[in-house]
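Predict fold of Retrotransposon protein; 69 aa.
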Amino acid sequence: MFIPEWKWDNITMDFVSGLPRTAKGHEMIWVVVDRLTKYAHFIAIKTRMLVPKLAEVYVEQIVRLHGIP
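Predicted 3D structure, encoded as C-alpha coordinates:
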Protein backbone atom coordinates (compact mmCIF):
# COMPACT_ATOMS: atom_id res chain seq x y z
CA MET A 1 0.00 0.00 0.00
CA PHE A 2 1.33 3.43 -0.99
CA ILE A 3 1.76 5.90 1.88
CA PRO A 4 2.27 9.56 0.93
CA GLU A 5 5.37 11.21 2.36
CA TRP A 6 4.16 14.81 2.41
CA LYS A 7 0.80 16.49 2.89
CA TRP A 8 -1.12 17.36 -0.28
CA ASP A 9 1.37 15.31 -2.33
CA ASN A 10 -1.29 12.70 -3.08
CA ILE A 11 -5.03 13.42 -3.17
CA THR A 12 -8.30 11.70 -3.94
CA MET A 13 -11.33 13.36 -5.49
CA ASP A 14 -15.00 12.53 -5.84
CA PHE A 15 -18.15 14.29 -6.95
CA VAL A 16 -21.48 14.27 -5.12
CA SER A 17 -24.25 14.90 -7.64
CA GLY A 18 -28.03 14.92 -7.73
CA LEU A 19 -28.31 17.77 -5.24
CA PRO A 20 -30.87 20.58 -5.48
CA ARG A 21 -29.64 23.71 -7.25
CA THR A 22 -28.50 26.57 -4.99
CA ALA A 23 -29.26 30.24 -5.59
CA LYS A 24 -25.82 30.53 -7.26
CA GLY A 25 -26.55 27.59 -9.59
CA HIS A 26 -24.36 24.98 -7.88
CA GLU A 27 -25.65 21.41 -8.15
CA MET A 28 -22.66 19.31 -7.12
CA ILE A 29 -20.08 19.02 -4.36
CA TRP A 30 -16.46 18.37 -5.36
CA VAL A 31 -14.72 16.49 -2.54
CA VAL A 32 -10.90 16.75 -2.47
CA VAL A 33 -9.09 14.74 0.25
CA ASP A 34 -5.40 14.70 1.18
CA ARG A 35 -4.46 11.02 1.56
CA LEU A 36 -1.85 11.62 4.28
CA THR A 37 -3.74 13.89 6.70
CA LYS A 38 -7.30 12.98 5.58
CA TYR A 39 -8.01 16.73 5.46
CA ALA A 40 -10.99 17.30 3.15
CA HIS A 41 -12.35 20.23 1.18
CA PHE A 42 -15.96 20.33 0.00
CA ILE A 43 -16.40 22.73 -2.92
CA ALA A 44 -19.78 23.61 -4.44
CA ILE A 45 -19.61 23.51 -8.25
CA LYS A 46 -21.90 23.61 -11.26
CA THR A 47 -22.72 20.39 -13.13
CA ARG A 48 -21.45 21.59 -16.51
CA MET A 49 -18.09 22.85 -15.23
CA LEU A 50 -15.27 21.82 -17.59
CA VAL A 51 -11.79 20.60 -16.62
CA PRO A 52 -10.00 23.95 -17.22
CA LYS A 53 -12.44 25.65 -14.81
CA LEU A 54 -12.02 22.81 -12.27
CA ALA A 55 -8.25 23.36 -12.44
CA GLU A 56 -8.78 27.07 -11.78
CA VAL A 57 -11.03 26.30 -8.80
CA TYR A 58 -8.43 23.81 -7.50
CA VAL A 59 -5.75 26.52 -7.53
CA GLU A 60 -8.10 29.05 -5.91
CA GLN A 61 -9.36 26.71 -3.19
CA ILE A 62 -6.58 24.17 -2.51
CA VAL A 63 -3.22 25.51 -3.73
CA ARG A 64 -3.98 28.93 -2.25
CA LEU A 65 -4.29 27.36 1.21
CA HIS A 66 -1.78 24.50 1.09
CA GLY A 67 0.73 25.47 -1.60
CA ILE A 68 2.26 23.15 -4.18
CA PRO A 69 3.81 19.95 -2.77
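The domain at 11-66 is CATH 3.30.420.10 (Nucleotidyltransferase; domain 5).
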